[in-house]
Each structure stands twice: as C-alpha cells, then as structure tokens.
Amino acid sequence: MKLLAKYLKQNMSAAVALVIFSSVFAVVFSLYDLQAEAVLYAFLLCLLAGALITSANFYLFLRKHRELKRISGDVYLLSNDLPEPKNLIESDYSEIINELNRLRNEEIARLTYKQSESVDYFTAWAHQIKTPIAAMKLILQSGELEEKGELLSELFSVEKYTEMALSYLRLNSEANDLILKEFRLDGIIRSAIRAYAPIFIRKKIGIKYDGTEATALTDEKWLTFIIEQLLSNALKYTDSGYAEIRVSADKIISVRDTGIGISPEDLPRIFEKGFTGYNGHSDKKSTGLGLYLCKRAADKLSHKIYAESDLNNGSTFYIDLKTRSVEFE
C-alpha cells in the first residue's frame, strides 16, 4: 500500500488531468441534451480506461522498483545490470551512475596497486633483514663476548619484531594461508616455550608447564604466534616470579604471569590496535600491536581470546580453542 500511495503521489498530475478531461467530456455531451445514462456511461468508460492504464503503469513501476532494490544489494552490478532507461531523464541518471562507477573502479585500481606495491616492498624488506640477523647470530654464537647473552637477547627481539611485521602483512592479506587440522597442543606449546627459554633463563623468571595430551582444530603457525606473543608480554611485564601455561579439559589454553598486571580501566581495551595503556606508557618499547595481532589471529582461526588481571598481581590470558565455524579468507 505504501508503494501504491507513493506511485499515486508521483503521478498525481496525470490522475488530475484524467478526471478533468473526463469531466469536460461529460459536460460537453450533456450540453447536447444526450441522455444522462449515455453521458455517465462514457464518463465511466474513460475512468475504466484510466484505471487500466494506471494499473499497467503501476505494475511496471513496481517491477522496476524491485529490480533497483535488488541491484542496490550489490553495487558491483551497477555497470552491467541497470534497467534500460525509458526516457531522457532516466538516461541522464544512468550516464551519471556509469561515470561514477568508472571513477570508483579507477580509484580502487589505484589504491590496490599502491597497497600491493607497499606490501611487496615491506615483505621484501622483512625477508632481507632476516639474512643479516641470522649472520649476526652465528657470529655471536661462535664468539667469546662478555655481553654475548645480552646481545643474543636483543637480537632475538629484532628477529621477533621482524616476524611480527610479516604476521601483520599476512593478516591484512586477502590470501588464505591457513592449514587447519587437528594438532597436538603439546608440541605447539613446547615450541613456543623453547623459543623464549633463553630469555626466561637470563631474566631468572620461571616457566611452568606440565604437558597435555589435548588436540584442537587450529593452525599450528598462527597458534604458535599467539602463544609466543603472550609469553613475550609475560616477560616484558614480569620482573620476578614465573609464567605458567595450562590446558584445561575443555581446550582452553591459559598463560598466567606474576607481573605488574593490568589496570581495570585498561583491561577492556588491551586488544585494540595501538593501545598501550598505563603499563605501555611506562614501557617505552611497547607498540600496542602484540595483543592486537593476537586478537586478529584468534579471530582468523575462530578462537576466542580474553584476559583477566589483578593489578600488581599478574595477568592471565585465555585462548579458547573449542571448535567453532572457522572463517576462510
């Protein structure tokens, strides 16, 4: 009914003209002393013809409206699926839409090329910088420098930041690099612990993990990345004590530390891009990207990640691996 009301309002002038012409027709015939029945009959025939024409035009109006509503659900159809214009005004609008669509496609192509060029450069840089890092590591491992442990630790940080940059690029890429299958969690967790074990030893911070027989549908590389980032955060904000990893019976990995914790007002925002909070401001090296990338990677795997914290008494991060519908990108 609303569409009918809009149609009648849009064509009000035609309806008024029909009534006027029919009335003029009836008045003229009545002046010639024709019988009232004949005049009324002619008047009703005019109204019937007008109603039939109006109904046909309303049907065409309704069909075009539905077609345009369908196209509006997918604007990429604009250049190929617009209804044929029926008059000069519609033709003008069609030309405007096609020109806007052409300009949009040119802008998308320009931005895509620019982004592709940037990604290619950054990816090449990240791979190239890993070569001197590997060479420096070999030199340090074979040398007798007094500060060798400190240098190895800093070199490890450079390597991890480089890997973070590559992970950032992969997460923003449209390519799907997931390898989803049932993995044993024990191997993934131990791999992450081995990577950070030298730093735990150097900082004299304990690491507790009792092993697990659990398996989960996940991607080994991305789950390892998440656990490593959580261990990195535990090291960054823990001066003494330990970090502990557990796997519950319902496939929730928890990474707990005895560090400085997170303030209650910061806790809801820790997974936001670039958010560092109070602790991040005190640690000048914090970029606010680590936990953001963890959340992005968890979302990519359809895992849930969340945290609990008690200020000055440590934090616990949880990775819920219970099977959900995984999104393939």
List the helices and strands and how they pair.
Blueprint lengths: L1 H9 L1 H20 L4 H37 L5 H4 L6 H55 L5 H25 L7 E5 H18 L3 E4 L5 E5 H17 L5 E6 L4 E6 L19 H6 L7 H11 L3 E6 L5 E6 L9
Parallel strand pairs: 2-4
Antiparallel strand pairs: 1-3, 4-5, 5-7, 6-7
Helix pairs in contact: 2-3, 5-6, 6-10, 7-8, 8-10
Please provide a written account of the structure.
With 329 residues, this protein is of the alpha+beta class. It has 3 domains: 2-73; 121-172; 180-320, 2-Layer Sandwich (Heat Shock Protein 90). 61% of the residues lie in helices and 12% in strands. It is built from 10 helices and 7 strands. The chain has helices at 2-10, 12-31, 36-72, 78-81, 88-142, 148-172, 185-202, 220-236, 277-282, 290-300, and strands spanning 180-184, 206-209, 215-219, 242-247, 252-257, 304-309, 315-320. The strands form 2 sheets. Strands 2-4-5-7-6 form a 5-stranded mixed β-sheet, with helices on one face. A two-stranded antiparallel ribbon has the order 1-3. Strand 4 and strand 5 form a beta hairpin. Helix 5 runs antiparallel to helix 6. The longest helix has 55 residues, at 88-142. The protein is elongated. The chain starts with a helix and ends in a 9-residue tail after the last strand. The relative contact order is 0.07.
Write a short abstract of this structure.
It contains ten helices and seven strands.
